[in-house]
Amino acid sequence: MKSQEAYKLLFREYPDVVNARQLCEMLGGINIKTAYKLLKSGAIKSFIIGNKYLIPKINVFEYLELVDNKT
Fold it and tell me: Domain residue spans in the chain?
């Protein structure tokens, strides 16, 4: 699936940058601790502002292997 198609079809109710709680919802209701493990390990690329993880939605697509992550 091309990234443009993914943006139009999947997770369209979420902003382009999500927080850890929204990530949990996007990944089927995973536990917040599991989400933090994924973020801390770098499995899902993110950045931290203050004490909050912010995750670009494209990185969630890459984790789910819905887009090509070659950059």
Answer: 3-63
pLDDT of residue 67: 72
Residues 22, 32 contacting (CB under 8 angstroms):
no
Q: What is the rounded CA–CA span in Å between residue 3 and residue 1?
A: 6
What is the length of the chain? 71
Count of CB atoms within 10 A of residue 7's CB?
15
Task: Say what the pLDDT of residue 35 is.
Answer: 98
Write the DSSP assignment of 47-71 as a string of letters.
EEETTEEEEEHHHHHHHTT-S----
Q: Other C-beta atoms within 10 Å of 21: how many?
A: 11
pTM to 2 decimal places: 0.83
